Amino acid sequence: MWFVRRAPDEKAVRRTDPYCIVERASLGRPAAKRARSSAVQSGGATTLADLDPLEKSCPELAKLGIKEYLFIQNMGGYSSSSSSEASPTPDQVLTEYEIFDAVMDPASLFSLIYSKDRAFGSSIIYAGSHQTRPLLDLVSRDLAKTLDACLVWHRFYSPQIPTLVDLRKRLTAEGHLANCATKMLFASLSLTALEMPEGPTKQYTNLKQSLRLCISSYGQEFIFDPPSHRDSIIASLFLCDYKPTALATSQPVVHRAVKSQLYINVAYQVAERLRLLPEHLKQSLQALIVLDPYALECYIADLLQSIQVYTYHATLSGFAKKPLHAMRRVLSRIKPAIDLLQGILRHRQLSPRLIFQMQYVTGIYITMRSLADVKHNCLDPDQIAMIIENVEMECLEHTQFSSDLLAGSMVYSTQDEIYAAHSLLELRFYLTQIQTTGAGLFYTIIMRGRSEQGKVSPGEEPHLDYTDTTKLGDQVLNAYKPFDGRRALPDASARFTQRFGATWPWKLRDVLQLFLRCTQSLKLDGVAFHPPCRSIIIDILPMCKNIVENNSMVLKMVGVPRVNFDELRDLLRNCALQVGAMSVPPGISSDTAFVGGCVYAASSKLLNGMCDVMERVTNQFMEEQKQKDQSGMLQMPVNFDFTNGVGEPLHSDEWSLLPFVGASDFSMDFHNDFDWTSALHVFASSPSDFYSEDPLDVE
């Protein structure tokens, strides 16, 4: 919830709809913050050096603690934290519901970690009054044209984002009648371009500060009364994807803004009013394939935006947490639009950009559908295996289909755009395969554990609750107890985990290598790859956390590092460097971007924190090795049953292939090695109140 301060004679009100989100707050500002706000509004640049002593001394700027979010923290032996780290205070201990939310939703994981960071977003500017200088005086036509060149990736992902030149023309023509959404969109796009690494080399410090004030000022008006205008949808989605912290009004609530609940609700409500949701845009394929290219492109852009708005809104509470019937209902509303897009692709020749956007949302739909299918068959591992196989085959077919379409579109664009579309679709469909496999492993393990406890009722609709994640630490502690032989491991579960668990760590590595290849090689019009920060949080951060958990667990419990341990550690470090580079415009440090609420800088810091965990575990392992017997014999943990889960001996050369080595209770143990966030969530930002009613779950 964000705080909005109003005049003394007005009452702060709370409304349940997304048009007005207000909390009661005492009037006025503390002296230190009031002084800082005045300095900002006077035109001075707010940098790390300008913060008050409390914020400058924040330890989080130097080191980010993520130990309580790693399951290996509860293990004996090696520790993922350093000896100098203080124990968490009672108010820092995670609740069961927070742990559940962090596992099920990547945005919630990000939000929880930074809820304890007093530096992140501490220099975000809050406008107490309207900006006095006209917006059009801040950004000239020539500057708008220059800045447009920096936003090529933003338009590559979002077809509805207009050019700054066109927006400026509209604002000039409309004059004082221009709505706050259009003004906020213009200011947001301009500021984003100025903050790009490829932005103008000239320092625009005062201009950036003025634009931030404009965004804050127009944003307050926008939150309370969003216009029924297309720009309201575009602005909401843009802030959600790229600058979710822009409208936060105080540092303590910045972390909540990352989940973008407010923006998504506004976008959905405006789209519903304007009849721009998928069900409102139904057309026959026969009528569409005869449209002229411009009209068809406009329709496709509207349809793609409607799918994005509906998908974001439908998954606000976490797609995997929904009842199965609610998941099916969401899919039923999206499927006709996806089928229509596929029909258009088969009958009309389109630009590489449109091909990418249409196939990208198709990949998202396949992921959501596969998660629902896995949940429906969670008691049948053999059926889940068939689902995974079918999804892998479907993804390969779509990847090949995309390649064929792009090969035929060379006359519409440059080779760089075609290569970018091909590489990013390859990454998208590979992510779909991994997320489906992860979901299959997760449900197989959860349901097996419930079955052993007698908590599974035949015919009961499968569901997840917080107990499925809060017990992971205890399960890790019991993972390597010897198999007592009094209960047989279900053959189906053993086969499933043996088959898909063996390749899981390598798939995680492959997807990060694909991501790095994109960051290092893709360029459009000279601008380096710049994806939405939302996609980094949803797709990349959970994969990296999975790698940290998997490798640290094997090292600690088996006593032997994976053969590619160093490779994976360096892979994470490179990911952190590449993501961090997306946040640093000329003349700005990453720390300054971090305190300014930049999600790219915060994501990079989180990735570096994961690398630190891997390095600490490695150093402890090396120290332990020095203390071992001079004979060089590896001292293995006691009570190890070196089988592969089905009674067959496990050879030493397989130690780096399986997530848990020698674990007699193999399928349950595999669960403890991972954070399943990447597998269980696609596109969501969970609401802060987990138990708030979801209208999509109501019949």
Which labels suit this protein?
699 residues, mainly alpha, two-stranded antiparallel ribbon, disordered C terminus
Summarize the structure.
The protein has 699 residues and is mainly alpha-helical. The protein contains 28 helices and 2 strands.
Explain what this protein looks like in three dimensions.
- By secondary structure, this protein is mainly α.
- Helices cover 57% and strands 1% of the residues.
- The protein has a two-stranded antiparallel ribbon with strand order 1-2.
- A hairpin with a 2-residue loop joins strand 1 and strand 2.
- Helix 8 packs antiparallel against helix 9, helix 18 packs antiparallel against helix 19 (415-452) and helix 24 (565-581) packs antiparallel against helix 26 (599-626).
- The longest helix is centred in the middle third of the chain and has 38 residues, at 415-452.
- The radius of gyration is 26 Å and the shape is globular.
Strand content: under 5%
How many H/I helical runs? 28
Please give the order of strands in the largest beta sheet. 1-2
Distance between the termini: 28 Å
* Rounded mean pLDDT score: 75
| Low-pLDDT windows of residues | 1-60, 72-86, 473-489, 634-699
Summarize the main sheet: 2 strands, antiparallel
- Which of globular, elongated, flat, extended, rod-shaped describes the shape? globular
Spell out the helices and strands N to C: HHHHHHHHHHHHHHHHHHHHHHEEHHHHHH
* Portion in helices: 55-70%
Q: What structural category do the secondary elements indicate?
A: mainly alpha
How many β-strand runs?
A: 2
